[in-house]
Amino acid sequence: MKRMGAELEPAIACLSYALCSISLSLFNKLIFSGSSFNFPISVLAFQSLCAVVFLLLSDWLKLSEPSPLTKDVLRAMAPVTILFCLMLWTSGKALRFVSMPIFTVFKNLAVVGTTAWEYFRFGSRVSMGIMLSLALMVGGSLAAGAGDLTATREGFIWMFVNVFFTVSYVASLKDLVPPDLPASAKTLANNLLSLGAFAGVAAFNGEIGDFWSALLAQTRLFKLALLCTGVIGTAINMSTFWCARVTSGATYAFVGASNKIPVALIGHFAFHSELTVGGWTGVTMGLGAGIVFAITKERERRQAVAARSASGGGGDAAEEDYTPLLRKEGAAGAGAVPDDELESDGAQALVARNGRGSE
């Protein structure tokens, strides 16, 4: 039973991350649908504040593992948080000069970049199935955005910079965060540092006072939705660390990119957003990419288990060949947050701020 649970852990972690990411995207869409509430940086700071409060309360009530907050933990988490903030900031800068379809294409290219990074960093095998799923994903985003693939030269520069920081952020989840720390401790440190960064930027922009004034004028349902983003934001942080610990960076990035498919479908029916023929084609190709990716990963897992059995080496069947870092570096390594979005899905707020939240 324990072995079966270990085999299912990567799938459960990916599913948890996907559900949290999709939910946060939809709640962010609900919040930023109205033009009267346009405070993305303050919302990110609020979400970080909620996470800190929830985690400290959970620690105090002994509902979760202790969350030791030491200088060493904060020092280890600082580069990850900086890369996370830079990823969001460059997303916002790029969205001023590129259309949403171009933005999506480049975000999918970041998954390709992450796969390439793992190949050169760890020697991870890239099978034909993985390459086919990546091609379907990029092709699907191109098909969905056909007719609106517009961008300026400055926009392309910002997008390439964003891809660099996105890949660097995903890489840092494996390389820089101590794997032996509880997920709650990593999440607390990440959100505490993010809170300082986002609150500082919001204060510099003079946004905080207007944010609270506008929030008080909103309906109870709106305030409840905003609070839900704080709760889900905490969950997505913890599921990100979990997903990054038990899967590869490429798998984590692919799940984040694939989340756009159910978001597009739910948005079409819930928010009555338009989905063109190209959009349906992109969704279909995206679903195909997800199926091919899942089948390929399962085949690789079975092959790895069979190889271990044949060699007589035993070992846990869950120790798959797409988690090389954890096996090579163990607790001595440093490895972990998470949008989509790769982004605590905060980039969704930046998308909405630029008037493209419904796309």
Structure overview:
The protein has 359 residues and is an all-alpha fold. It has 14 helices and no strands. The protein has helices at 2-32, 40-60, 71-95, 100-122, 128-144, 153-175, 183-204, 208-216, 220-246, 249-258, 260-270, 277-311, 324-329, 346-353. Helix 1 packs antiparallel against helix 9 (220-246). It starts with a helix and ends in a 6-residue tail after the last helix. The model is unreliable at 314-359 (pLDDT under 50).
Question: What's the quick description here?
Answer:
The chain is an all-alpha fold. Helix content is 75%, strand content 0%.
Rounded mean pLDDT is 74
Number of strands: 0
Helix content: over 70%
Continuous helix count = 14
Derived from helix and strand composition plus strand pairing, the structural class reads: mainly alpha
Broad shape: globular
For the terminal residues, how far apart are their CA atoms?
Answer: 44 Å
Order of SSEs, N→C? HHHHHHHHHHHHHH
Main sheet characteristics:
none
* Percentage of residues in strands: under 5%
Q: How large, in whole angstroms, is the Cα Rg?
A: 20 Å
Uncertain spans? 314-359
